[in-house]
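README, section 4: Worked example with a bound small molecule

Sections 1 through 3 covered apo chains. Here we extend the same pipeline to holo records, where the ligand is supplied as SMILES alongside the sequence. The molecule in this example is S-adenosylmethionine. Nothing else about the input changes; the structure line simply encodes the ligand pose together with the chain.
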Amino acid sequence: MGTQTDLFGQTVTMYSRPACGGLLKWIGNKYKMAEEICSHFPTEYGVFYEVFAGSASVLATVAPQRGVGSDTFGPSIEIWQTLQSDPELLKEWYRERWDRLMAGDHRERYEEVKASYNANPNGADFLFLTRSCYGGVIRFRKADGYMSTPCGPHRPIPPESFARRVDEWHRRLINCIFQQADYREVMSQAQSGDLVYCDPPYTHSQSILYGAQDFHLEQLFVQIAECKERGVFVALSIDGTKMSGGLVCDLPIPVGLFEQEISIRVGRSMLKRFQMNGQSLEGHEVTDRLLLTY
Ligand SMILES: C[S@@+](CC[C@H](N)C(=O)[O-])C[C@H]1O[C@@H](n2cnc3c(N)ncnc32)[C@H](O)[C@@H]1O
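The generated complex, written as structure tokens:
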């Protein structure tokens, strides 16, 4: 538990409990680890930023008094903005597609939503695809950005359950602003005493996941150093999979940039399984690294 100052400069107690169920189903999200990650945040800070928001699991866990969620991926930002401005519409988007799926051949109906999304990428179709695609693995074809994941074998959650999640997430994110923007633009707005949480794309594996093509970790380290210089707290999650005691990914982490490194237990991760092409995770230490500038 920590405190945050609200818009009027009042100190407000923050709780770091995860929401009852994710809104988007998104492989590699930080939903299960969010509570542990938040437990390492400073006890006091100003504005909370999640600059690679994705499915916004850490943002929704913090449920900040003043928060900013940003991502370059337009359809997910459209979902978050709609959650705030018109939660009933979000429920309707989901219900309408769920009804269509249930009324016909699942695979065919799923492919119709996917075709509609690929013809015109949009939040309404994307929301439903995350909940119904195979394993929540949102894959985009490298050449043209085509969303290529097949239909999952599971039954997507019923509209009533989804609607309950919308209500809870709406309450949690009510004090946040959502922007479609590059992390560099948003991080440069953070001021002394603010907290920035970064969960960047996976650099050493599937660049098709989460549009990682144009992302360079070295540039993120430059932004983090500038934030630290200005007195902004930064927490960075990085894949920490180890094999036989050695690091698989040797990251170019600048010496002295981070003051602490914490291992976060990942447990049985779908993403790790996916990254390793279904090989056994035996002998692999499945953890994430949380690096802190404070
Ligand atoms: C690993 S995911 C974040 C997952 C998130 N923490 C969650 O729990 O769902 C990385 C995100 O970074 C976004 N992204 C990629 N390049 C970016 C950039 N240059 N600026 C901001 N966001 C970017 C992707 O669209 C993706 O949503």
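What to look for in the output: The chain has a mean pLDDT of 87. The pocket of S-adenosylmethionine is lined by residues 26, 28-30, 51-52, 54-55, 57, 71-73, 182-183, 199-201, 210-211, 215 (CB under 6 Å).

Section 5 describes how to batch many such records.
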